[in-house]
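Lab notebook, bench 4. Still working through the backlog of constructs that have no structural model yet. Next entry is a single chain of 84 residues. Request: give me the structure tokens for it.
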Amino acid sequence: MYKIVNGIEKIDKEDLVLVTEDGRKRGRVRKIKMRQCVKDIGNYSFPYGTVEKWNALNNEVVTAQTVHNFKEKVDKWRHGDRTL
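Model written out:
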């Protein structure tokens, strides 16, 4: 999801999720929302499984400068360092 949100992966993120950049979502940046899906198959798609997990990450993690830095921060976050 990091690569999609930051435009590293060459797919149209607008087809998958809606990304907010303004920080008005309870002080969060790069929060994502699922697009409405008319078919039940959307409930089993990649975005559906990752939106909640992505939005649980703090700003420090989602605004990482590189993929490597993002992975390091996610690992720290997973292992209890929720303050970063």
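Notes after review: The mean pLDDT is 78. The helical segments are 2-5, 46-56, 59-62, 67-78. Flag for follow-up if needed.
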